[in-house]
Amino acid sequence: MLAVEAGVVADLHARARATYYPDGVPEAGFDWVGAWRKAVRREDGQVLCAVERGTVVAIASFRPPQDGPAGTVKLFQFHVDPGRWRAGIGTALHTACVEQWRADGRATAVLDVHADNRRAQAFYARRGWVPDPEHPPAPDDHHLALRLDVRTAP
């Protein structure tokens, strides 16, 4: 991924995250571009982007989880430009992810979603994601673990 692309992705990531953090994106000084470059360079990591008229409007990144069971993939980032919500972009990108996971022989997908991000939780639930019984939230955790059976996902 080129530096300019990493910057575009980091900007999209920050704008999407800001929608569910009422006081703004935490870790404002965090090097999002550097984090994306590091994530993309992993051999087992994959990134899918939705592009409209030359502009990245959605991004998904995933890879096998560290120390996770075989056949599992973890969705680390899934963001759609807030100005493009409800346009079918997220649905199309999610479908592309599931197709890639099936092609890669994955049976299960997992993700963590922010507990305050009700919109994302509803999006995932409509696509078959359920709470992960193996990873219930801790009382001080701000994330919910979700699981998807890739073989039966819509």
Describe this structure in words.
The protein has about 150 residues and is an alpha+beta fold. The protein has a domain at about 45-150: Gcn5-related N-acetyltransferase (GNAT) (Aminopeptidase). Helix content is about 30%, strand content about 25%. The chain contains 4 helices and 6 strands; from the N terminus they run H-H-E-E-E-H-E-H-E-E. The protein has helices spanning about 5-20, 30-40, 90-105, 120-125; strands at about 45-50, 55-65, 70-80, 110-115, 130, 145-150. It has a 6-stranded mixed beta sheet with strand order 1-2-3-4-6-5, sandwiched between helices. Strand 2 (about 55-65) and strand 3 form a beta hairpin. Helix 1 crosses helix 2 (about 30-40). It starts with a helix and ends in a 5-residue tail after the last strand. The mean pLDDT is about 80.
Q: What is the radius of gyration?
A: 15 Å
CATH topology of the domain at 44-149: Aminopeptidase
User: Given this structure, which CATH class of the domain at 44-149 is correct?
Assistant: Alpha Beta
Largest sheet: 6 strands, mixed
- What would you give as the CATH superfamily of the domain at 44-149? Gcn5-related N-acetyltransferase (GNAT)
Q: Poorly predicted ranges (pLDDT <50, ≥5 residues)?
A: none
Give the CA-based shape. globular
Helical/strand content category: alpha+beta
